[in-house]
Recover the amino acids of this structure.
């Protein structure tokens, strides 16, 4: 389905999304990366406007993350994410 104004649909930046979920941006990124939210075109899209890249999330991303957090604690996701990141860097 083509949207007339995709910026209206993908209306949330990472900071706004984190605030709506009561998370810090790093913990939001941990959830997003751990569950492949950016790979879902209904949840995430990048827009290039001029020379700037805008990374935007849709309300569906908000709903999906809320569902994820009903089944798993953000602290558990964060800890697993941090361990994975340390192992990748070494």
């Amino acid at each position: 389905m083509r949207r007339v104004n995709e910026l209206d649909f993908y209306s949330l930046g990472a900071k706004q999304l984190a605030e709506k979920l009561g998370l810090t941006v790093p913990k939001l990124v941990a959830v997003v990366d751990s569950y492949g939210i950016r790979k879902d075109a209904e949840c995430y899209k990048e827009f290039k406007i001029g020379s700037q890249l805008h990374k935007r999330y849709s309300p569906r991303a908000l709903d999906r993350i809320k569902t994820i957090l009903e089944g798993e604690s953000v602290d558990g996701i964060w800890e697993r994410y941090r361990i994975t990141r340390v192992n990748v860097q070494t």
